[in-house]
Amino acid sequence: MVASTSEQLTALANTTVVVHPLVLLSVTDHHARSVSRTSSKRVVGVLLGQDNGKTVNVANSFAIPFEEDEKDSKTWFLDHNYIEGMYDMFRKVNARERMIGWYHTGPKLRASDQEINDLFKRFIAKPVMVIIDVRPDTVGIPTDAYYAVEEIKDDGTETRKTFLHVPSAIEAEEAEEIGVEHLLRDIKDSTTTTLATRVSEQLASLQGLQSRLRDIHTYLLDVANGKLPVNHQIIYHLQDALNLLPDLSDATLTQSFTSSTNDELLVVYLSSLLRAVIALHALVDNKATIGRTELEDSVDDKEKRKVDNSNSKESSS
Fold first, then answer.
1. Angle, alpha carbons 102-120-36 (nearest 5°)
2. pLDDT value at position 2?
3. In this model, does residue 3 exceed pLDDT 50?
4. Could you give the CA distance from residue 147 to residue 126 in angstroms, rounded to a whole number?
């Protein structure tokens, strides 16, 4: 592995890995068929697509046989002959899709990832590793992309192998968007209203934001305690994000937020009041309907008694 300079690390950090929905579905199906729900095992596969320099387009994938010892992370098996055979068949179908890296279902980095990545260097010089989290309770983007690098220390000490995290995104072509829309339409819960769906989506978004903020908080604590080195690029990104936050000490901005919140709460209050009036009207209407029904039943009973009495008198006479 060639040692990476700061310029090369910066170039890699600016690379974006775009994962298509077809890959996510294939990996999820691979994990569901191979691993039980109670097991913590992971599955491994090959990623296919195009490497355009600043953008790595992950368009397809296929699963490969993989076994590892859960107690000893250095004991694992991966059939590279199977990789060669499958890649040759995929290349006959679509020559544009080349091998660009590999994936596993993590959900975190493992000690054997460096060794597995070195094996994939037989097929590609710079493989990208994508960790795809297939857990159903995961909130947010389920992908994390990495490149294996050797960092050169500024003090001239020995270089060390590590993984460099790069941005990842989920994008779809027009045909994939149509397929995903049909899939979501089929699994949509018809018992939930549009408002309930919107609230649940906003709740999921807030949970994802909370998870990211928790990760940032943990990272900053580790840096402050000396457990992790200072990464100036991450600090710059955090500073840019904090600069976008509104200045709540500004009286005009605070007044605007208060007015907007009061308007929204007024709508909620009117909606609750209207719902209560409708419920009360329905209750009164129900009571009136029951009263009319009871009155009609009592009148029918009286008429029936009169008819019975008159029939008994005629029979006696």
1. 45
2. 45
3. no
4. 8
Mean pLDDT, range 195-200, rounded to an integer: 78
**Residue 71 DSSP one-character state:** S
Q: How far apart are CA 178 and CA 166, in angstroms?
A: 28
Distance between start and end Cα atoms, the chain: 122
Q: In the numeric block, which tokens belong to residue 18?
A: 């775009």
**Residue 44: pLDDT above 70?**
yes
DSSP per residue, 202-232 = HHHHHHHHHHHHHHHHHHHHHHHTTSS---H
* pTM beyond cutoff 0.85: no
Compute CA distances 55 → 243, 279, 292, whole Å.
Answer: 27, 57, 74
* Residues in Cβ contact with 140 at an 8 Å cutoff, skipping those fewer than 6 apart: 208, 211, 212
For residue 1, the model assigns a pLDDT of 43
d(CA 104, CA 142): 12
